[in-house]
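QA checklist item 7 of 12: single-chain prediction sanity check.
[x] sequence parsed
[x] length recorded as 230
[x] structure emitted
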Amino acid sequence: MPTKQSTPTETDRAEIVLTQAKSSIKHFREAFATVRMARKASGPPTAGEQDLIRASLTFAAAGLDSILKELIKGSIKALAEKDTDVQKGLEEYARRQLREETDGSFAKNSANFIAKLLVSPKPYEQLVENYTIHLTGSSLQSVDQLFKASSALGITIKIVNDKSKELREIFEIRNKIIHELDVRFDITHGQKSRNSRTKKGLDEMSDLLLKVAAEYIKAVNQKLIKAAEK
């Protein structure tokens, strides 16, 4: 009988981040319950209580961002050596770096790119490192970035395709919380207040982000196992 394939080590760091993200969100929810119990609340959550569940959403989004980056950092080299989909992404990256200007001369960045590869003791590894930096250098907290990560890793995440509209709304809410403190302005009356959030709604959003993160880890593990068998 064939032996069971062990889990690839390339995803270990992503697994750790997922565990920590779940733990943090659990703590926020426990704090919310403790505060509610202490004041014997039965109605809608106060602004302060809503901040606890707002925080849990931002931690879920940050966890997803970190998990995607750890998956790319940990597995892109191994996948690029065996998987044709990932190889194509790496080739396209290199091609863009070498693209000529309209006057036929290489761009300054292209010259720097070539120079770094030529002087590197291991040009291929340097290329992969540059590609990894390119993929992980900015926030991956948007649906477009999720698709970009999927493409780079040569995987398809069904839940991202099926729930792309819902995920876009979640990231918009996350951005309002992070960048605007969830403040809403009433232009008509010149007043400002905060968007009202329910625990159930924000919990569902956080859980979806964590589920997406887990699906990425699962898909990359499967991809690595197949690549190792080639």
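[x] summary fact logged: The CA atoms of residues 183 and 217 lie 35 Å apart.
[ ] second reviewer sign-off
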